[in-house]
Structures are given as C-alpha cells and as structure tokens.
Amino acid sequence: MQLSQPAEQNVDVEQSEISQTKSYTSKVNDDSWYSDFKVVPFGFISDSIGNSIGAAGLLKGVGQPQAALLGVAFVSDKGSYVTYLGGYNYQLSDRWLVDSDAYIAQFKDYSYYLGDATNNDSEFYDYIETDGQESRIQAKFRYVLPLGQGKEDAAKASYLPNRKLTGMTPWDSGVTTLGVSPFYKTRKLDDIDYDEADSTWGAIFSLDWDNRDSTRNTTQGSRTVFNYTYAPDLGNDESWSTWEFQNSQYFDIGALGNLFNKQVIAFDFYTAGTPSWEQGSDGEHRPPEYAGVRLGGLYRQRGFSSGRFTGRAAINYSLEYRVMPDWQPLQNWPVFDWYKVPWWQWVLFTDVGRVADEYDVSELHENMQVSYGGAVRFQVEGVVVRAEMAWGDEESMFRVMVNQPF
C-alpha cells in the first residue's frame, strides 16, 4: 500500500487502492489542540488483497498550525489488513522539521516475487502465493539550508505549497534540505524457505533541492534528490548500502485554445545502485529485496506490481503530458461537492526502465520494461488524488492513490 501525508513528503506503504470515499468534517475553534478533522471511509476490490473496507482520518494543525496526523486502516474479506499512522511537518526549531510514520500489515494468499523471479527477464507466473506480515517505522529529520527561499523563510519554505522561482541554482532559488531518516522494516512470509533476513534497520541520508513552483500541481521548475542508505552490522545479519538519484523537470507549454488552459511536459530520471553488492564471498552484504533497489508500483514502472523487479542497479525514465481542461465540473458533482476541488488534470504517461545485477549503463538500456497509461488527477482539500490505468507487458493495473508520482 502507498499513501502520502497531506503536505510534501511521500509515505511508502505498499498496495494502495482507495476508492468510493465519503467525508465527515468537524471544524473547531482556534483554541483547540487541532484545527480541522476529516474522516474518509473507503472501499476497493483487488484480486490480491480481496474486497476491502476501511477509513482514513486526518487531523490538521495538531499542536502546530502546519502539522498534521494521518491514520489509515482497512480489512479485507481474505483476512488481509493494514494499519498506518503518521505525523508530519513538526517544526523543532527555526530550520529543523521532523516527520514520522509507522505501519503494520498482513496479506493473506498474496503474490510475492522472490529471488530470480524478480530479475528483468523473469516470467509473470514465477510468483509464490503465501501469507505475509510487513511493518515499518521511520522518522525523517529535515534541516533547511540557508539557500534560495530558505534564506528568509527557513523551515517554513519546505512546507509552502506554492513558491516563486527566482533562479536556476540552489543558491538563488528553491528549497535545499538535508535529511536523516532512521528506519526499521520487516517482512515475514509463511511456509517459505527463503534465505533472506526478515528484518533490517538503518538510516537514509538525503540531499534534496526542490525548485518547483508548486508541490501539488507543478508547471515549471525542477527537483533533484540524492539518497544514500546504510544499514550497519549491528542489528542486521550483515551491513549493506544503496544509493538513489532522481531528477525531475517540468515545462509549461501554455494553453491550447479554449480546450486546455494549461499544458505541462513532465520528465523524470531515476537511477540506483548497491555499493555493497559484491562485498563478502556470497552476497551476504546485499539488502533484503523488500529494502533494496526496486521497480514496479505507484511511482516507477506503473504497469507492474509493487517491487516486481529487484536487483543491484536500476534505471528508469518517465514522461508525462499533463493538461488542465478549461471545463471543470467536479465541484458540482455529487460527493465531490463535499470537498474543495479547485482543479483537475488529465495525464498521459509512459515509464521505460529495468534492473540489472551490474551497474552497466549499456546493459541497463537493453531489453527495457515499458509501462504506459492515462490518469485523472485532482486536488481535494489540499491533497492530490490520482486515478490511473497502466499497462505493461504482463498485466494492466488500475489504481487510486494520493500525490503526484513525481
């Protein structure tokens, strides 16, 4: 399942498919310990999870005006369930913020791809069906550097939804953030004899330059992120490490007559590697597959299931054509009229990429996997919701989730 918090950061919880929502909102006065409360029941149908019902609850302004708490839970008729709780944008000082989240999940008769079944040339029917238990807890400490918009706005700059672009370098524009994210992850599979650690912990060290004009509906600018993940010997079977680099670019190409009042070309480049892959005599310094380099899911290779492909290295290119129609009827439709829906967006997209057991640029551009599809996205009460249909070589995927993919 994958969800996201109400502001900028992404929350990674596998297998999210949320639909058919209703909302209950409770407004309170200014002296309350929170400013706004929403509950959203939902239901969805999934071959892998089953027929499910659940609810999401959002508390805004919890303790601090910009902070929020998000809770999600659902249960299926197959016995699968997910519980999730996160707190976001808590300001510790002028430049420090912290986010934290945790989830516990159980999946019954779920399809898992393991070992060679996750290779780029593996077959769709190589999965193993079993019960699995997954969990994660993590915190992210963010320090906003005194560069660009961070010079004057400090930590506030990182959670403002809209920004003015004033240059092409971190010194002149955008928000540059250093991050440290300690984490603990587990995955336990029943009745499977598979040589992989069922838990791991470590920390992600990140550098993020966000030079977008909007975090919700970007029309111009860029974002560049570098992550280095390290899991030490202490508390792990063996130490391991990975790195990730991502660069996103956005180009406003204007209106199209009276049909579209905005057109945007969005491009994303992602690559990752595993420095510890060859350490040791038998690959003992490789990360568990659920914590390593992966493609497939809600953000890259959207025509495949989450974590369908894993390996030492990965590369992926995503291209989107986003338009905002001049016609916007959602605010007047049933159910939608319970919310503030300022805009909607139509999208065509494609993903091209693959994994490999060597970081070889030539190999990473051979026999690449391809996904393509279309989406409708809209902002609801400050949260971007996207419903998309994606196709790959193996199957098609329909998903409803939150946040832009990049």
From TrEMBL:
Entry keyword set = Membrane
Location of the Bacterial surface antigen (D15) domain: 191-390
Q: What InterPro entries does the record tag this protein with?
A: Bac_surfAg_D15
Mind telling me which Pfam families this protein's record contains? Omp85
* Superkingdom field: Bacteria
Task: Please give the start and end residues of each transmembrane region.
Answer: none
Where is it found, in Gene Ontology cellular component terms? outer membrane
User: Subcellular location, in the record's words?
Assistant: Membrane
Q: What is this protein called?
A: Bacterial surface antigen (D15) domain-containing protein
